[in-house]
């Protein structure tokens, strides 16, 4: 693992699948957004191959480009996604090492930020339910651009008062790592969980950890 050029002063975490395990059905959310876009007569080529939030963004743009109400579509889509997220968070569990790592970082004066593509209602509720210490939470409702766009991370780091060169990004999806690399953070850590080692092949992290208990040593 490469040594960051500066001491790590802030660590950004993804939420679902990294800190907390939920049962959100992401494939079903993708299908739902595809169906909404088709109902709005958005051409298939506009939404093909896109992830959940980029389907919404592309469809809203297409609708607005045809003289329709793109913002209204976005609002309706986000409301539908929120309800699916709420349903998928009925019985969340804390992932191994989460409490110990966050407590350790905070005890050493390292700022903790949570950057998630989930909605604020669900994200804030999960953090409160498990009393997880953090200094900033930026959800999809709080930013104009979400991961893998680096702006999501830059906004979080601005809230924490640290530069990317002083920060690390930790997540369970290659888009988290891609966002970290694009943002220029000093260190990216991929949390494998139940995934195979090649899970991060589209965008390999600087370091791999099976869970956050193993990841704790990356910040020493």
Spell out the helices and strands N to C: EEHHHHEHEHEHEHEEH
- The first-level CATH class name of the largest domain: Alpha Beta
- Rg value: 18 Å
Structural class based on helices, strands and sheet pairing: alpha/beta
Number of strands: 8
Domain count: 2
- Looking at the structure, the CATH topology of the largest domain is Rossmann fold
Low-confidence stretches: none
So, CATH architecture of the largest domain? 3-Layer(aba) Sandwich
Mean pLDDT: 94
Instruction: Give the oligomeric state.
Output: single chain
Helix content: 40-55%
Describe the largest sheet: 6 strands, parallel
Which short descriptors sum up this protein?
single chain, 220 residues, 44% helix, 2 domains, two-stranded antiparallel sheet, 9 helices, alpha/beta, Rossmann fold, 6-stranded parallel β-sheet
Q: Could you walk me through the main structural features you see in this protein, from its secondary elements to its overall organization?
A:
With 220 residues, the protein is an alpha/beta fold. The chain has two domains: 141 residues, Rossmann fold; 63 residues, no CATH class. It contains nine helices and eight strands. It has a six-stranded parallel beta sheet, sandwiched between helices. Strands 2-3 form a two-stranded antiparallel sheet. The radius of gyration is 18 Å and the shape is globular. The two termini are 13 Å apart.
């Amino acid at each position: 693992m490469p040594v960051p050029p500066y001491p790590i002063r802030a660590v950004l975490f993804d939420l679902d699948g990294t800190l907390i395990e939920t049962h959100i059905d992401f494939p079903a959310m993708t299908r739902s957004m595809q169906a909404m876009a088709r109902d709005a007569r958005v051409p298939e080529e506009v939404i093909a191959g896109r992830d959940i939030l980029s389907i919404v963004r592309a469809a809203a743009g297409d609708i607005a480009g045809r003289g329709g109400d793109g913002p209204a579509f976005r609002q309706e889509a986000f409301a539908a996604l929120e309800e699916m997220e709420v349903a998928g968070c009925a019985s969340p569990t804390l992932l191994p090492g989460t409490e110990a790592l966050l407590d350790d970082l905070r005890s050493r004066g390292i700022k903790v930020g949570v950057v998630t593509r989930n909605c604020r209602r669900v994200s804030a509720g999960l953090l409160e339910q498990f009393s997880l210490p953090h200094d900033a939470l930026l959800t999809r409702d709080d930013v104009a651009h979400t991961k893998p766009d680096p702006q999501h991370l830059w906004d979080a780091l601005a809230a924490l008062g640290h530069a990317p060169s002083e920060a690390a990004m930790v997540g369970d999806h290659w888009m988290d790592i891609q966002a970290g690399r694009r943002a220029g953070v000093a260190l990216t850590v991929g949390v494998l969980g139940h995934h195979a080692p090649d899970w991060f092949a589209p965008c390999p992290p600087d370091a791999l950890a099976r869970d956050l208990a193993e990841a704790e040593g990356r910040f020493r």
